[in-house]
Design brief:
It is built from three helices and 17 strands. It has helices at residues 2-19, 77-83, 315-318, and strands at 54-71, 73-75, 88-105, 110-127, 148-154, 157-167, 171-181, 189-191, 195-199, 212-222, 227-235, 245-247, 250-262, 265-276, 279-281, 301-312, 321-354. An eleven-stranded antiparallel beta barrel has the order 1-3-4-6-7-10-11-13-14-16-17. The longest helix has 18 residues, at 2-19. Bound molecules: copper (II) ion.
C-alpha cells in the first residue's frame, strides 16, 4: 500500500519536474540555494543555520510491522506459544509519529534545536487456542482479553546544540549534543475501560522515562555530479526510569548519496544501520509471559534499512525557503535479541520552512 503511495509521489514529482522548465532560476553561482539541501527526509541535525535564522519542520513517520522473528529467523504464532510459552503472539503493529522541530541560529556556527512528538502505536495480537478467548490477567474470569490495543500520547522532547566545524560550498561538518527530556508517558494503560491498572508493554509506551545524552557527528560533501553524506548518532542511557527499567545505549550510522536534477528536485538513497542494546531492568507490573513485547528480554538487536527518497524544493516557485522530502524505507537486515515483530516498511514525510 505504502509503496503505491510512494510510486504516486514519484510520479507527481516527475510531472512537476516537466512543468519546471518554466520556473524561474533561484540561484546564481554564488548562491547557496541547493547546496545545503542534499539530505534525505529521515536525516536531522546535519546542518546549522546562520545567526538569527529560524527553521520549523514537521515530520511524519509511519512504520508497519508484521510477523515475528527470533534472531534473524521467522517464527510462527505456534512457536511463540508452544516453544516460548507466551499466551499471545503479536500479528501486526503500526507506529505513527508526528514531530515538530524548531531550529534557531544563535551564531553563524552554533544552532539550537528542539523537537516534540505525538505518537500512536496500535497492535493486533493472536491468542493461543483461538476460538476460546483468554481471560484478562487479574480480572474475574468472565472478562475476555481484547486482541488489539492502540495508545496515543506525547513522546519525549529532545533538545540539541549543533556546532559547525566546517561550513562551505563543498563540505559541511556538524557535531551535536542532545538531551532527551522524558515528557512522554511510561504509564499508559493497555486496555483502558476494561482493566485500568494493567500498564501497556514497553514498545507501546509513548515515552522512555529517562534523561539520555545524544552525541552525533554529520558530514555533508557536495560534488559536481552528486552529493553524499554520513552521520553517526549515539544515545547514552545511564539512568533507570521510575518503573524500574531503561532502554539501553543505541548507535545509528547513516550514509547516503543524493542527486540534484535541477533547482527544486533531487533523489536520494540512504542506508541506515542501527545497533540497540535492548532493555535493562524490568517493569515488574507487566506479565512477562503474556506476549513477547511484555518481556524485556525481547528488545534490542541490529537492523539495516534502505531508504529511496525524493526531495522537492517548491521554494523555487514561492521565493521562500521550503523543502518537502519523502522517503520509503524497507529492511535489508534484521537481527532481534529474542522474539520481536518484523519491520516491513517505513514512510517518512518532512516539511521544512526557513525564515
Ligand atoms: Cu534547520
Amino acid at each position: 500500500m505504502l509503496f503505491k503511495i510512494y510510486k504516486k509521489l514519484v510520479f507527481i514529482s516527475s510531472l512537476l519536474w516537466c512543468l519546471s522548465s518554466s520556473a524561474q532560476e533561484c540561484c546564481g553561482d554564488d548562491c547557496e540555494c541547493g547546496k545545503s539541501d542534499i539530505s534525505p527526509a529521515g536525516i536531522m541535525n546535519d546542518h546549522t543555520h546562520e545567526k538569527g535564522k529560524w527553521m520549523f519542520s514537521y515530520r511524519y513517520m509511519h512504520m508497519n510491522m508484521s510477523g515475528n522473528i527470533i534472531g534473524d529467523k521467522n517464527i510462527t504464532d505456534n512457536d511463540v506459544y508452544a516453544i516460548y510459552n507466551y499466551s499471545m503472539s503479536p500479528s501486526t503493529m503500526t507506529m505513527d509519529m508526528h514531530m515538530l522541530m524548531a531550529m534557531y541560529g544563535v551564531s553563524d556556527r552554533f544552532t539550537i534545536m528542539a523537537m516534540a512528538s505525538y505518537n500512536t502505536s496500535s497492535m493486533n495480537m493472536n491468542m493461543f487456542s483461538s476460538g476460546s478467548s483468554m481471560n484478562m490477567p487479574g480480572m474475574s474470569s468472565d472478562v475476555a482479553m481484547p486482541n488489539k490495543q492502540s495508545i496515543s500520547g506525547f513522546g519525549d522532547t529532545k533538545v540539541y546544540g549543533l556546532f559547525s566545524l566546517a561550513k562551505n560550498d563543498e563540505l559541511q561538518i556538524v557535531v551535536n549534543v542532545g538531551i532527551n527530556i522524558p515528557t512522554g508517558s511510561i504509564n499508559a494503560i493497555a486496555f483502558p475501560g476494561i482493566n485500568n491498572s494493567l500498564r501497556a508493554d514497553y514498545i507501546m509506551q509513548p515515552g522512555t522515562g529517562t534523561i539520555d545524552f545524544m552525541p552525533g557527528i554529520s558530514l555533508l560533501k557536495h560534488n559536481s555530479n552528486f552529493d553524499w553524506g554520513a552521520q553517526l548518532n549515539g544515545t547514552l542511557r545511564p539512568f533507570y526510569n521510575a518503573n524500574g527499567y531503561h532502554y539501553c545505549n543505541e548507535a545509528i550510522a547513516e550514509i547516503w548519496i543524493s542527486k540534484k536534477w535541477n533547482n527544486w528536485l533531487s533523489n536520494s538513497v540512504r542506508l541506515e544501520t542501527i545497533a540497540n542494546g535492548g532493555i535493562a531492568g524490568t517493569d515488574a507490573s507487566l506479565i512477562t509471559l503474556m506476549e513477547p513485547s511484555a518481556d524485556a528480554a525481547n528488545y534490542g538487536g541490529s537492523k539495516a534499512y534502505l531508504f529511496p527518497g525524493i526531495n522537492f524544493y517548491p521554494g523555487t516557485f514561492l521565493s521562500s525557503d521550503i523543502k518537502l522530502r519523502f522517503e520509503y524505507g524497507f529492511p535489508v537486515y534484521q537481527y532481534a535479541f529474542g522474539i520481536q515483530m518484523k519491520n516491513q516498511e517505513t514512510l517518512i514525510a518532512n516539511l521544512d520552512f526557513v525564515f
